């Protein structure tokens, strides 16, 4: 099995780069490339690769490649250009590209949960009501974790960010830097994806203010989704079914063998990023994540509506047709 790993994949958990792949019309010499990010919500991709699950479900003779990505935009571009045939990505990029006219479908989920709101211990924050005038950080403006935090604050506490002339100051930065920023006092609050929330807890630089179940869409919104192109669905639905079957096998393996799946995640993340997460960090992060392939179009639409209500999307989104559950039913 061929793996494609670029030289830029070092240093940080979020620094992942893509390679390339293709699909041939001749089923006997087919080549399928699967993309994912080496992070905790994409463990199904790591398990499928480590356990060689795609070769179990794809037609005999199929060559399977893997690509690792730095961000959702790069992933979706690779999907649209045919450099990859399917894989795991965050729901935001999938929805954004769909509403921009991309012919893509979400055919399964990857996981749910994993977003945590954390506060600096000496910032005089006892509850979210104390965040007026405080500085919070998110990975990017309007990203999944940003929307989850701002929807919670607006809907439950009537607080908004300075992006819309609100009371909270918003900055952006990589989650790997949050622990140091808490330690130096540069931020008061962060909306943190796992495993960085568990890493920060272990470092002791911040405390949990709002845990995953109480964040907006915390346990229902897919933190990762499995996508493919509409062209592949139309031209070769049997191939898509074989691809999704392998993803389902990987998800069921994680559910049935969590300890082995954790070991695979630690080793694969280290192999790709040259960073090793401790077993205690993985254990804590695991408790906040549910690995599932079931996906709800209704929850995705509600999340998209929140993005619009917060002003991250100019137009009211319509996700009708984005989710195709026929391959998991």
TrEMBL record:
Keyword Cell membrane appears in the UniProt entry: yes
Subcellular locations according to the entry: Cell inner membrane; Periplasm
Lineage: Bacteria, Bacillati, Bacillota, Bacilli, Bacillales
Official protein name in the record: NitT/TauT family transport system substrate-binding protein
Chief location of this protein within or outside the cell: membrane
PROSITE patterns: PROKAR_LIPOPROTEIN
Domain of life: Bacteria
GO molecular function: ATPase-coupled transmembrane transporter activity
Keyword Thylakoid (UniProt): no
Cleavable signal peptide: 1-25
Family assignment from sequence similarity: Belongs to the bacterial solute-binding protein SsuA/TauA family.
Keywords from the named record: Cell inner membrane, Cell membrane, Membrane, Signal, Transport
InterPro entries in alphabetical order: ABC_SsuA_sub-bd, NrtA/CpmA_ABC-bd_dom
GO CC annotation terms, alphabetical: periplasmic space; plasma membrane
């Amino acid at each position: 099995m061929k793996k494609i790993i670029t030289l830029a994949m070092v240093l940080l958990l979020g620094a992942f780069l893509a390679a390339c792949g293709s699909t041939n019309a001749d089923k006997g010499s087919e080549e399928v490339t699967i993309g994912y990010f080496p992070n905790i919500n994409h463990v199904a991709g790591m398990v499928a690769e480590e356990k060689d699950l795609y070769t179990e479900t794809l037609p005999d003779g199929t060559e399977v490649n893997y690509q690792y990505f730095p961000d959702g935009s790069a992933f979706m571009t690779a999907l649209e250009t045919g450099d990859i045939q399917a894989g795991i990505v965050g729901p935001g990029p999938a929805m954004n590209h769909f509403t921009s006219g991309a012919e893509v479908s979400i055919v399964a989920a990857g996981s749910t949960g994993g977003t945590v709101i954390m506060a600096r211990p000496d910032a005089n924050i006892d509850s979210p009501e104390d965040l007026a005038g405080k500085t919070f950080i998110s990975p990017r403006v309007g990203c999944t974790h940003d929307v989850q935090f701002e929807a919670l604050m607006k809907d439950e506490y009537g607080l908004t960010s300075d992006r819309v002339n609100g009371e909270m100051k918003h900055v952006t930065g990589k989650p790997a830097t949050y622990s140091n920023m808490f330690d130096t006092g540069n931020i008061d609050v962060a909306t943190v994806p796992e495993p960085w929330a568990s890493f920060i807890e272990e470092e002791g630089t911040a405390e949990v203010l709002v845990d995953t179940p109480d964040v907006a869409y915390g346990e229902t919104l897919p933190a990762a989704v499995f996508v493919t192109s509409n062209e592949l669905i139309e031209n070769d639905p049997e191939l898509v079914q074989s691809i999704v079957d392998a993803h389902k096998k990987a998800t069921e393996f994680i559910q049935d063998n969590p300890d082995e799946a954790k070991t695979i995640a630690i080793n694969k993340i280290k192999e790709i990023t040259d960073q090793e997460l401790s077993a205690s960090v993985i254990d804590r992060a695991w408790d906040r994540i549910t690995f599932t392939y079931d996906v709800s179009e209704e929850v995705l639409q509600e999340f998209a509506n929140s993005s619009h209500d917060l002003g991250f999307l100019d137009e009211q989104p319509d996700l009708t047709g984005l989710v195709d559950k026929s391959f998991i039913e």
